[in-house]
Each structure stands twice: as C-alpha cells, then as structure tokens.
Amino acid sequence: MPSLRPQCNDDGDESRLALLVLRSWKVSAHMHAPCAHDAPLLVPAPVEIDMDVADEFGRHLTEAIAAGPRRVIVDMTRTVFCDSSGISAIMAAFNRIHAGGPLLCLAAPHPRVRRVLTIVGLDLLMPVHADLDEALTG
Length: 138
What we know:
The structure is a single chain. The protein is 33% helix and 23% strand. By secondary structure, the chain is an alpha/beta fold. Helix 1 runs parallel beside helix 2 (84-96).
C-alpha cells in the first residue's frame, strides 16, 4: 500500500493534492494526500458502505487520521447506500480523533444517506457538507 505521507510535484507547488491509489477495495479507491500541512486529506467513500466493505473503509479512515492532516474529508459523492456498519466505521474513526486532532467531515452525501446520518445524529457530531467544494473551503 502506498504511503499517506504528503507528496508534492517536482515544481514544489504545495497547493495541489497528490493522488494516491489504494487498490485494496473491490473497486480501487483514490485517496488524495495534502502537500501543504493545512490542506485536507480526501477519503472517497465506496458506492455502498455495508458490512462487505465497512471494515476496510474504516481502516482507510483510520490511516487518513493517522497521517496527521488538519482535516479529513470523507467524499461521499458516489455513495448511495450506508447501513449501520458504515455508520459504525465513521463513528469509530470519529472516536479515534483525540483533542487537537484532525477535523473529520463528510461531503456530498446522497439525500437518502444524509437522512440516515441525520437520524443517527452524526450531523450533530461532525460537519456534513452539501458538496465537495463546500467541504474543501469550509
């Protein structure tokens, strides 16, 4: 598995996000590592977060948090389903964050997924942004 350490282009442009490919999911996932220390780390969520992928998704969230960015954004743009095992993976990641650790937020959940997040109260614990742009600037 590739390192989650920040990587920058040869031109030294620290405002860009370096792309890392994680091939351990059924469909390869892309994690974007920040070059600049204050840049967010993006973790794309799978299309369906259920018991088949929740443990692995949780490991990716844990790795992202351990990489030490200021913010970890879970990109839920493609996610259309999230069951209790997915909620548990997100909550476990949230519970691993210590005082002064990164901010965990969710971006662009499908309306059905957002409803589940609201019902269980995740939107009261962490920011849930309407779209990825809002999460990146928030």
